[in-house]
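Hey,
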Amino acid sequence: MKKIYLVLWAVSILVASSVPIFAHDFWLVPKKFRINPGDSLEISANTGMDFPNSLSAVTPDRIDLFRLVGASIKENITEFTVQDNSLTTNCSFTTPGTFIIAAALKPKEIKLTGKEFNEYLLADGLPNIYDLRKKERILDNDAIEYYSKYPKTIIQVGNKKDDSVTKPIGLPIEIVPKVNPYKLKKRDELEVSVLFQGKPLPNAEIAWSYPGRGEEFAGSTKTDELGQASIPLIKTGPYVIRLTHMEWVKKPTHEWESYWTSLTFEVLSDTN
């Protein structure tokens, strides 16, 4: 996310401590990103801003979908356990290939004052919505928002690297890699497409990070007119790409809807 938004975010925390810190990313973090066929794998659903650390666990009743998707498999996951600050589940992989695990959280309502909402928009890379409120002269208006979250993670099982992960799986919003990330390595770039309701999402702020960055993203950019962006893979190990999109819906129950998405995977070293 651009430096100005990070600065504004820090200021809003220090000066306006009344702002609810609900604006946390939601990631799927496997214990390992690469495993052998026949292995069982623990997946953690983590909430926070310091990837991959979790501040709190979502409760199982918030889960609207949790699914394993591969070239020839689509299975729903229904068993969860809360462990410390994470919601966890276990998946077994019997065949080699590249797999997606995806989740969806049910929409939840948040009510903010106009000041809180404006600070949140600037903190989370939504200056277009701030500018819209300014243009409409509603910066002082309180806000009722429904937000939902749609994370994905990519798991490599064995050595068979297939391209099934380059296809969308039908989430309301999702980041879709244009090439299997496990065919890339450090110092490559990963081209991605962002889809909202199945269509390319242009001019959206997309950011990326990796462990050790704290709450400051490693970088950000905007999607082009085709909803595409290029993500530099500058560090080996776990990686996250994230994005928030908001719509002014003007419904009787709420005015705003936000859609959060993230994609986690592992960046390989030059020698892999």
